[in-house]
User: Which sequence fits this backbone?
């Protein structure tokens, strides 16, 4: 991913005149965040324009200031320790800028992924309920499915719901008169009911 980011940065910002070492360092920092993917690579690279332009301006200013200071004081070129400090300062600027740019982007991506996962989960539950033949009226009542339940747990729960519905329907048929029965069966049921009444005496 680091190389992809580097090539994209180099292609997009070649006009700034930044050294490959700087772009490679920036690409490495971006890759190290773990936020950059093939899907959002173009968005991340495009969002670096302001930062890289400012970085180039800052580098130019540092160089100009250093040259002027050297001329005024007629000092020797900066020693290795000072160069290391400058490099560290630049790297810190890069890291801080990356964090400020990528954190909001990652939050948006996380929110979008969470929304997609919720929609996908709701569809899965609905499809499974239909597959099991759970009536629409029962689906509309909602299910007690928690976020930590996996597919197997959801399947087991919905199967239990379906079994409860079937059991209730069977119990209802056993305890209630059918809505329509043959005449002979109706007379027999009426006779059994009358015999079950207590004597008036």
Assistant:
């Amino acid at each position: 991913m680091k190389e992809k980011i580097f090539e994209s940065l180099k292609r997009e910002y070649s006009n700034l005149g930044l050294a490959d070492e700087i772009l490679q360092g920036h690409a490495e920092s971006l890759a190290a965040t773990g936020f950059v993917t093939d899907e959002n690579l173009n968005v991340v690279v495009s969002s670096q324009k302001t930062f890289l332009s400012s970085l180039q301006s800052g580098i130019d200013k540092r160089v100009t200031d250093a040259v002027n200071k050297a001329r005024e004081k007629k000092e020797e070129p900066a020693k290795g320790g000072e160069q290391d400090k400058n490099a560290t300062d630049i790297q810190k600027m890069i890291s801080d800028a990356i964090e400020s740019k990528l954190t909001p982007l990652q939050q948006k991506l996380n929110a979008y992924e969470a929304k997609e996962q919720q929609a996908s989960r709701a569809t899965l539950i609905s499809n499974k309920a239909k597959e099991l033949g759970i009536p629409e009226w029962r689906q509309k009542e909602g299910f007690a499915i928690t976020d930590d339940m996996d597919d197997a747990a959801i399947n087991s729960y919905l199967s239990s719901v379906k079994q409860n519905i079937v059991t209730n329907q069977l119990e209802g048929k056993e305890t209630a008169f059918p809505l329509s029965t043959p005449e002979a069966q109706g007379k027999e049921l009426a006779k059994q009911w009358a015999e079950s009444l207590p004597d008036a005496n």
User: Anything to note?
Assistant: Residues 177 and 189 are 8 Å apart (CA to CA). The first helix runs from residue 2 to 12.
